[in-house]
From TrEMBL:
Taxonomic source organism: Athene cunicularia (Burrowing owl)
Molecular-function annotations in GO: metallocarboxypeptidase activity; zinc ion binding
Protein name: Carboxypeptidase M
Domain Peptidase M14: 11-297
InterPro entries recorded: CarboxyPept-like_regulatory (IPR008969), CARBOXYPEPT_ZN_1 (IPR057246), CPM_N (IPR033842), Peptidase_M14 (IPR000834), Peptidase_M14_domain (IPR050753)
Alphabetized UniProt keyword annotations: Glycoprotein
Alphabetical list of PROSITE patterns matching this protein: CARBOXYPEPT_ZN_1, PEPTIDASE_M14
């Protein structure tokens, strides 16, 4: 590796060592990495992100963006350290290991080892259970601090949260995971519900989320066994977030609803802040799972929406029939869309709101091993089509939907009918 194994095992990387490590990696691999800070914590610490890939500094059309975020709870430390191992493994395997080489040539991987550096530094006495270091300097739980899709979140948005929200807005993230500790399970959206639903809060992409969570748990040394910690058990090492416990303002629901990014929450250690001499084993237990999970960014279908002259059309709604998102997924500034879908037959609907829809039936193969989703472009036969920018307010969208659903059903039927007629007349 980049540094000696004994150095790895000696201790945790505190702020200065973490920055020195990331700068060292970037200096050693300048064309494969891009190091930047997406903002600052309450106490002014940089929120570092290392982007890795063949084109690390910017998005390339067709290359999906992936992210790992760790140490959002400052006293949950395993993710912070194993992401440093992951960085070392990726850079040293490039052009040596054919799988990692293809992965980095076809994916842009963003790694944020700590979202809450203040909480980490505030944790003076490592504890397996709860400490104040969970929170940021203002005493806020960052994983309760995001806008919520189901109810009003009254928490004031913290600098760390705002930095991540801006980052999500500025990159076309497709897949993500959020690394925590204090349990051993892969948990998936939704974490919250509307009303009095019991037991399970299912998203329209529940099948995909189950697959994503199982990809992690079954490639982990023991998570798939479902033994959890203490007396908790999780069949196959996965759980719906809400089934485990309800929470408001979490980051994974935010990514899915407003970020067009599928995120799961990985609980990686029964002990939140274990002794440093266990970190090497945590890396070994998670290594294959971390890599296999990144490959899933190539599930499904992707493409570009253009007009007759080949100019990209941003803000076009592109969704798979039967799985509408409450805030519809739209093309980015390059007219690109990415939809994570399991192998099967789907109808993909590209709609310029108020103007026209195009439907295409696609047969999605299992192609994560090819490091590319199925490619399906849409070309509208007109020129200079404009699609208005998305208006998706940060209000509880599902709550609105439920309250309005009884009143708007006839309107929705008319909308569907109009879409069908537009397609028929095309
Ligand atoms: Zn946590």
């Amino acid at each position: 590796g980049f540094f000696s194994r004994t150095w790895w095992a000696s201790s945790y990387h505190h702020t200065e060592e973490l920055e020195a490590y990331l700068k060292g990696v970037h200096a050693a691999y300048p064309s494969l990495t891009h190091l930047h800070s997406i903002g600052r914590s309450v106490e002014g610490r940089d929120l570092w992100v290392l982007a890795l890939g063949r084109f690390p500094t910017h998005h390339k059309i067709g290359i999906p963006e992936f992210k790992y975020v760790a140490n959002m709870h400052g006293d949950e430390t395993v993710g912070r350290e194993i992401l440093l191992h992951l960085i070392d493994f990726l850079v040293t395997s490039y052009r040596r290991d054919p799988v990692i080489t293809r992965l980095l040539n076809n994916t842009r991987i963003h790694i944020m080892p700590t979202m809450n550096p203040d909480g980490f530094e505030a944790t003076k006495v490592p504890d397996c259970y709860y400490t104040r270091g969970r929170y940021n300097k203002n005493g806020e739980d960052l994983n309760r601090n995001f806008p919520d899709a189901f109810e009003n979140n009254n928490a004031s948005i913290q600098p760390e949260t705002q930095a991540v929200m801006n980052w999500i807005k500025n990159e076309t993230f497709v897949l993500s995971a959020n690394l925590h500790g204090g349990a051993l399970v892969a948990s998936y959206t939704f974490d919250n519900v509307t009303g009095s639903l019991k037991g399970y809060s299912r998203s329209p992409d529940d099948d995909v989320f189950i697959h994503l969570a199982k990809t992690y748990s079954f490639n982990h040394a023991s998570m798939y066994k479902g033994m959890g910690c203490d007396r908790q058990t999780f069949p196959e090492g996965i759980t719906n977030g809400y089934s485990w416990y309800q929470l408001e303002g979490g980051m994974q629901d935010y990514n899915y609803v407003w970020g067009q990014c599928f995120e799961i929450t990985l609980e990686l250690s029964c002990c939140k802040y274990p002794p440093a001499d266990q970190l090497e084993k945590f890396w070994r237990d998670n290594k294959a799972a971390l890599i296999e999970y990144i490959k899933q960014v190539h599930l499904g279908v992707k493409g570009q929406v253009t007009d007759r002259n080949g100019n990209p059309i941003p803000n076009v709604i592109v969704e798979a029939k039967g799985r509408p998102h409450v805030c519809p997924y739209r093309t980015n500034e390059h007219g690109e869309y990415f939809l994570l879908l399991l192998p099967g037959t789907y109808v993909i609907n590209a709609t310029v709101p108020g103007f026209k829809s195009m439907l295409k039936t696609v047969e999605i193969p299992d192609n994560t091993g090819n490091f590319s989703a199925l490619k399906q472009d849409f070309s509208f036969s007109e020129v200079s089509i404009r699609s208005r920018a998305a208006s998706c307010p940060k209000t509880p969208l599902y709550q609105d939907l439920e309250l309005a659903s009884a009143a708007t059903k006839p309107t929705l039927h008319i909308l569907v009918l109009m879409t069908v007629m537009l397609v028929a007349f095309k």
